[in-house]
Amino acid sequence: MSGTVLHAVPVERCDFCNAQPVFKVYSCRNFLVPWTKTWVYQHESVGGWAACRKCAELIDAGHWSELSNRAFVKFAKAHGGIPRYEEFTLKQRFRDLHRLFREHLIRES
Known about the structure:
The strands form 2 sheets. A two-stranded antiparallel sheet has the order 1-4. A two-stranded antiparallel sheet has the order 2-3. Helix 1 (about 55-60) packs antiparallel against helix 2 (about 65-80) and helix 2 (about 65-80) packs across helix 3 (about 85-105). By secondary structure, it is mainly alpha-helical. The protein has helices at about 55-60, 65-80, 85-105; strands spanning about 25, 30, 45, 50. It is about 40% helix and about 10% strand. The chain is globular and about 45 Å long.
């Protein structure tokens, strides 16, 4: 593949609910996602997080539980529903991920 030039693809979807278009990008310090650790690797959040207008409104207002609920509902809908026995764990994962985001968010001065 000599001569092939790769270009970065711009962010086009909300990192919270997967909606389009992106309205705002939040600067965030990198962090590891603790529950993803395996013997081989661990997932890491690197760089900014994109948000649609609705998710940005929830973030800016500090409505974290509503943000997590929105993300869960959109995720469940996109995946054709979530088995009832998995709902609690998945909702908790969204809350935990958004808590980590909040803790690593670089606030504007």
